[in-house]
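#struct-pred
JK: can someone run the complex with guanosine-5'-diphosphate? inputs below
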Amino acid sequence: MLLWRSLTSSISWPRPSLLTAASVHRGRIPLYNRLNPCKPIAAGRRAASFAAPQPELVREALFVPPGVAKENVTVGMVLPGSNIVVGPYAGDARIKHADFVKSSSRAKDCPKDDRPEFAVIGRSNVGKSSLINALVRQKDIALTSKKPGKTQLINHFLINKSWYIVDLPGYGFAHASESARMDWSSFTKGYFQNRDTLVAVLLLVDASIPPQQIDLDCANWLGRNNIGMTFVFTKCDKTKGGKGSHPADNIKQFQELIKTCYREPPPWIMTSSVTGLGRDELLLHMSQLRNFWGNNEE
Ligand code: GDP
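RT: done, structure tokens with the ligand placed:
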């Protein structure tokens, strides 16, 4: 796990040209079968993708997973709308079952069965519940965390009876008192520092608004503490609006602001719970993190 953590938490950032390349790339049919890379795609579809224009590949900006040499990366290996390269650890990413397991008020009360888990965090209103619902394709599964009095709980959802998605409390409530904010940080930081089964954190960032200091602080804290993370940009469908509200510009700015914190590019991906953008790609990325973790656990 240590190797993976150093890969995902060491810092750099995607260059602007990659962002453009990724956007161009988004409409293409990828060479892998999105949810099940073990299953090849039909020959006709593959031929169609070869005929598509090839965007420029900026290797330094990519997140290259274990088992892949940077110089061997081709455009077809990069997940659309992201800087994430798919490697040999990617596996069947489909979610067949999702069950709410429990809410815990302390890290030490969380399930103790050693299954790998992904923690999902982000500012209140970032679209965390919507994303979790979209990932598991259940309309209200993440509502549990929204019930009054449950906002400061760690909620575990068991996926395919083998791994967890963990919904952590949102941060940055506009009207929260200083003490409530401090509670969030000590509570959540305790979870991050003590949870051995944590594969990676999905840090959700609202791409429809300019970068927010609280998100940058959170990213920097995770980076400094060597906690592997993936930036999941939400609400990327919100392309209408005035200056300062275009997701591609906001994402670029966000990456500019965090670039000094990372030696290697952390993975990032564009999503929308409204259109489904990035859902399958994110699940595939999670499968490769999970499978690598499973094969290299300390
Ligand atoms: P949470 O507080 O982080 O759990 O955020 P929610 O999932 O409750 O979403 C907050 C608001 O953003 C709701 O009004 C959602 O409908 C909206 N929202 C969430 N995801 C998206 C998205 O991908 N696109 C758009 N346009 N709106 C979204």
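RT: quick notes.
Residues 122, 124-130, 170, 234-235, 237-238, 272-274 surround guanosine-5'-diphosphate (CB under 6 Å).
Residues 1-34, 37-52 have pLDDT under 50 and may be disordered.
JK: thanks, will look after standup
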